[in-house]
Amino acid sequence: MWRRVASLSSSVSSSFLAQTASRLNTWESLTTGIAQQAKGVIAPKEKTPFITFVLGGPGSGKGTQCIKIVETFGFAHLSAGDLLRREIASKSADGAMILNTIKEGKIVPSQVTVKLIQKEMELSYNHKFLIDGFPRTEENRVSFERIIGVEPNVVLFFDCPEEEMVKRVLNRNEGRVDDNLETIKKRLTVFQALSLPVINYYSEKGKLYTIKAIGTEDEIFEQVRPIFAAFETVG
Ligand SMILES: Nc1ncnc2c1ncn2[C@@H]1O[C@H](COP(=O)(O)OP(=O)(O)O)[C@@H](O)[C@H]1O
Ligand SMILES: Nc1ccn([C@@H]2O[C@H](COP(=O)(O)OP(=O)(O)O)[C@@H](O)[C@H]2O)c(=O)n1
Ligand SMILES: [Mg+2]
Q1: For atom 14 of ligand 1, which residue has the closest CA?
Q2: What is the best residue among 55, 64, 160 to mutate for testing ligand 1's pocket, by most ligand atoms within 8 Å of CB?
């Protein structure tokens, strides 16, 4: 599991691990991992996580392209929206609040979303993660950094004209409570006001890859493919 994997990087000094771990809720398993490694219980040959954030407005094609990236490059796909919808379906304590927030096209408190992502990462045996629809706000971004303690390697931005996004969302036909014109307008406003600053942040950090999200699914994937292919050759 990644949590275990993350704890076993033998090239990292123990004081760095301690500092990092103190910011994480994974302290317990980190220390367990270190102790196990010291005892030689687990082979210390594990990989550093490779994190991709997948950003873009509603209907820009994030989920569609993630499926292709998974097929071609073997990532684990963690859709923030799907995780939140699963919480609603499971009737968890936060379910009603999440449902109302999604209906309003607003953003669920970061702590809730980051915890769900964290759980999935911990359970995964993969070390390559596509985190789809996250971070959607600066608060999301900072919260991920604080709780998970890792920065993304790659940030994809699917850049799509609004009228195309609206058309796609209205045709999506997945029975989602937020795929109606009224909510889409709110989501587009939220995207402009809260998500674009995150995209600009990663642009300034030199981590942003902008994809022109118009054309067929395959044409768009041909813009995505070389980004990951380059990382594969680097190893
Ligand atoms: N390149 C494309 N051209 C036309 N429709 C698309 C394209 N990519 C995705 N779609 C469709 O648009 C809708 C939204 O795509 P989706 O991947 O769910 O976007 P997002 O996750 O960004 O909201 C879906 O019904 C999907 O099948
Ligand atoms: N990081 C996130 C991601 C989604 N969400 C909520 O979930 C809704 C659906 O997200 P999604 O990623 O499935 O939507 P699409 O962009 O794929 O259409 C958003 O409009 C938000 O209300 C959130 O609050 N925080
Ligand atoms: Mg989606």
Answers
A1: 59
A2: 64
Are residues 141 and 87 part of one domain?
yes
**Same-domain pairing of 115 and 154:** yes
Average pLDDT over residues 161-175: 98
Task: Identify which of 184, 65, 200, 78 has the alpha carbon closest to the alpha carbon of residue 141.
Answer: 200
| pLDDT the model gives residue 92 | 95
Q: Are residues 117 and 184 in the same domain?
A: yes
Count of the separate structural domains present in the chain: 2
pLDDT at 1 (0 to 100): 59
Task: Name the residue at shortest CA distance from atom 3 of ligand 1.
Answer: 216
65 CB contacts (<8 Å, ≥6 apart)? Answer: 54, 156, 158, 211, 217, 220, 221, 224
Q: Which atom of ligand 2 approaches the CA of 56 most closely?
A: 16
**pLDDT above 60 for 193:** yes
